[in-house]
Amino acid sequence: MSRRSVRTSIAITGGRVAGWLSRATGRGQGATISGRVINAMAPNALAQLAAGQRVALVSATNGKTTTTRLLAAAVARTGEPVVSNATGANLTSGIAPILAKARAPGLAVLEVDERVLPRVVDPLGAELLVLGNLSRDQLDRYGEVHAVGDVWRHTAETHPDLRVVANASDPHVVWAAAPAKTTWVDLGRGWRNDAATCPNCAALLTWSTDRFDCPSCGFGQPATPNRLDGGTLALDGTRVPLRLALPGRWNLANAALAVTAATTHFGVDPHEAADAATTITTVAGRYMTVALTDGRRARVLLAKNPAGWSEVLHHLSDRNCSVVIAVNARVADGKDPSWLWDVPYELLRGRPVAAAGERAYDVAVRLRYAEVDHIVEPDPLAAATKLPGDDVNIVASYTQFSAIYRRFG
Amino acid sequence: MSAASESAVRVGLVYPELLGTYGDRGNAVVLVQRLRWRGHAAELVEVTAGAAIPDSLDVYLFGGGEDDPQVMASAGMRSSRAAIDRGRAGGAAVLAVCAGFQLIGHSYEAADGTMIDGLGLVDAVTRAGPNRLIGELVVEPDPPLPVLTGFENHGGRTTLGPSERPLGRVLARNGRGGDTEGLVGERLIGTYMHGPVLPRNPALADHILSWVVGGLSPLDSTPEEHLRATQLHAGSARSVRKWWQERVLARG
Q1: Are residues A154 and A132 in the same domain?
Q2: Which pTM value belongs to this model?
Q3: Domain-located, residue A15
Q4: Which of A21, A23, A341, A377 to mutate: most B Cβ within 10 Å?
Q5: What is the ipTM of this complex?
Q6: Which residues on chain A are in Cβ contact (under 8 Å) with B200?
Q7: Please, are residues A386 and A377 in contact by the beta-carbon 8 Å criterion?
Q8: Of these residues, B194, B207, B226, B233, which one is catalytic?
Q9: Does A331 contact B246 at a Cβ distance shorter than 8 Å?
Q10: Are A144 and A88 in a shared domain?
Q11: Which domain covers residue A322, as residue numbers?
Q12: pLDDT tens across A21-40, in order?
């Protein structure tokens, strides 16, 4: 491992103290504040900490924490030491303390916020980007989806040697990754309500059952021998069954992306990589169950935007279950909960439902117009105890989810 | 009173793929449901991008959109101008929000600085502003409408011609007041308020519906009033403590 400057070493110690204080006072898990202290005391810390590590960065609107977890598990099969940000702290402040923990040269699999990604590729000396999907999320903070795709593309254009593993079925991701040395994987048709127009020429995209095309400029879905086919990943002729403990179609897509990256870039056997994925049962609190005061348990899911909610709803609509919808509108959630109206909550008609969170009334009004009978109870756990059955799901926005995770995780 | 009792009220959601970034579908859903719950027949008509906008709509909803989609939408709307005029002459109402509001004016300044023609339904021009206005908005319109709340997120600044009337006076915008918001014309509302604006302001929804079907029977709006009361409070009074919690502590 390369030598760290005295300044960086002192900064790391300062960061540890700040992180310990954060945990001890119950403010948080300490990763973010620890990193802020490190970055403030030693601005070059990221570059020094990353020296000696082979760095892979994972980004997406949805699924980046899970994909990172799955990829880290898969590349661990190489036998190399692996560091990874397991808590979902994905700003530059979250990354520094993770790298500080690396004791030897090895692999670093890091989740990165979509907006932060272009700023950390150089300091971290990243050799691989794993890019999942882009859709509207926190429009008040991130701005428009096209703008994020454009800055990603600029990164690809200015780093011709960068390797990328990317989702071939998301127009924004394809636009971003096309200039790089990209291995594509077709993850199937997901949310496409934020990709009406061509990222290249702004004409209307046409969508068929299995691909998108621009009739005006020729931009379209790239051909690839890698695709997710139900629960099986077809990887350049090899069929790799994905048997996940994690629920939902969206996690199959996360796993397909991770297995493709582990196999094509790090040389892991695809069946080994898939086997590593099966061992993951919860990811930073996602899909964990928590005990209710009446002895029952509730499952906790994170859904923070229309694309994520759309996947979760399709998963829940197959089940005879109760659902708590817990929504905040703080900075980390996006301060405008207008997106609730882009989610087809009508699918929950006939199920016991509760509106919860600091924006419980926004949820309640949305449910009223969807004609979904519901109760209003701001505390999500109290709401869960008021719903019947043994399959109670708390679907929470980011800060609601974090609060539950801090309490039970 | 139109012929609503014989045929369904047609609430038109124009180009939802292009002008639907901020939950704009919600405005259409609220209009349709508030009619149905009162016993009126109503249907939500989606005008998909690329299709001609028909003259047979009773409400034309133009929503918010991103830069490129807004340019696409402007071309489609201009080519359907005659049909929209016929619809309006027949009594149809217009609700135009954010990008849609900019598009019903004479012109707006696109992201690259070029001026794009709008529909010219109202005497208004939009120029790019120095920064984006993002946050809760509280607006006091003329009676009989009550104080309205919404969430704005836009870079453009819209200037009304001398004959046009704003929707209301801004009581709070990111904690500040001053200024005016939106536009109210004949059976027409233009505004920057998302939320979407109609679920958060049922009185405004009923105001628009009354233009189309005449008098409306009362409808319980308790959940909406709870929401409105909460957001009136949130938009008007932001304490330093809350700012500190949200910016610094909640990020952990």
Answers
A1: yes
A2: 0.87
A3: no
A4: A341
A5: 0.90
A6: 365
A7: yes
A8: B194
A9: yes
A10: yes
A11: 289-408
A12: 777 776 666 667 767 776 67
